[in-house]
Amino acid sequence: MTTTFESQRAALADVVAIPVTPFAEDGTVDQDAHRALLRRLLDAGVTTLTPNGNTGEYYALTPEERRLVTELTLDEVGDRAAVLVGVGHDVPTAVASARHAAELGAGMIMVHQPVHPYVSQSGWVDYHRAIASAVPGLGVVPYIRNAQLPGACLAELADHCPNVVGVKYAVPDATRFAAFARDAGLDRFVWVAGLAEPYAPSYFSAGATGFTSGLVNVAPAVSLNMIEALRAGDYPAAMKVWEQIRRFEELRAANGSADNVTVVKEALASLGLCRRDVRPPGRTLPEGERAEVAAIAAGWSA
Fold it and tell me: Could you tell me how far CA 285 lies from the centroid of its own chain?
């Protein structure tokens, strides 16, 4: 029987939440806070979660911590949501992480963009093919941030690996996204706007049906309002949400997204939901900049 991955495809056409990884005072993963934040998302109606995403500080976690985050998430979520586990680094590490996710019952993996400074187009295909082939029962979602990659490479990958079912596209260019999706096969994959709410309206107009979100950690209802508007084709309503979240996302995107995770954790700290701590190369938000973030978060929770 051929696996169709219908449930995985449906899960990607939604708000794909990227949970933060909260840290305790001693610097370890705060497991209780992590579970509480996951429950908050689930209770709000979020149905797709990505442990070990960039908002979860994937590259600042040890291998053991990445495994722990995967285990905590799948245990807490149970059958309440789809789980898309982030994997990456070298091929053996990514394959081991993918198999670990499969053993725990995850339905999908997201393959982080290769961090090697020299990425060839054929090598990109080979990298993802090795990982996807190792877990044929999992849906696979490449995370694409490389503006030089042509859509033909994704089509070639899927020719070899039919479990490549979706794409997290995070090149900040809606025109390039529209072309890439059509070159790869617009109807062949589920297209997820990988730059979150700020880019979701423009990417949806070009064929995306889901978007990732770090903001959803702070204000789940805001993100869900946007997906509902976009599904209805109500772009004026979606842009009202865009206006509501604009300043928060500008703070996250400033200086090459230096404070992308920092701002989310600062907002959560202002609501008493976790500590503000992030790991290097991130930083905690300077004291003088915290009040604005707290005011925005308070406005959403009012």
Answer: 22
> Length of the chain in residues, anyone?
302
* C-alpha neighbours within 13 Å on the C-beta side of residue 54: 23
- Indicate the average pLDDT of the chain: 97
Segments in the chain forming alpha helices (H): 6-12, 31-44, 63-77, 91-104, 121-134, 151-160, 174-184, 200-205, 220-231, 235-257, 260-270, 290-301
CA distance 94 to 126: 13
Query: pLDDT per residue over 166-187, tens digit each?
Result: 999 999 999 999 999 999 999 9
Answer whether 150's CB lies under 8 Å from 121's CB.
Answer: yes
Q: Which residues contact 140 (CB under 8 A, 6 or more apart)?
A: 108, 109, 111, 128, 131, 132, 161, 163, 164, 165
| pTM to 2 decimal places | 0.96
Instruction: Name, in order, each residue with C-beta under 8 angstroms of 24's C-beta and a sequence gap of 6 or more.
Output: 30, 33, 275
- Give the distance, in angstroms, between the CA of residue 136 and the centroid of all CA atoms in the same chain: 21
Query: Tokens 């909260």 appear where?
Result: 22
